[in-house]
């Protein structure tokens, strides 16, 4: 794995949360409709590679150069892995840790 790419923070009111994080010094990186009535809202601090997403659910997105290889490695080591989904934004594979926290591999 390359890096922590996005930390997804669950919020009840996206606009209120957006105002809070903008006040902290975050900047909007991406804001776009997701097709399910929700908006993808991604914010970041200047000069930082890791961003946050204000969403309806929790998760951490980890960037990888080879999602198939990483998925196979994780499955071989006993991690219950999901399917690799191809999307316009890259390939994604969701999984959960032992405590039920959502993690996602992303290959651009």
TrEMBL record:
Segments forming a coiled coil: none
Cross-referenced Gene3D superfamilies: 2,3-Dihydroxybiphenyl 1,2-Dioxygenase, domain 1
InterPro entries tied to this protein: Glyas_Bleomycin-R_OHBP_Dase, Glyas_Fos-R_dOase_dom, VOC_core
Residue ranges of domain VOC in the record: 3-108
Pfam entry (one): Glyoxalase
Protein name: VOC domain-containing protein
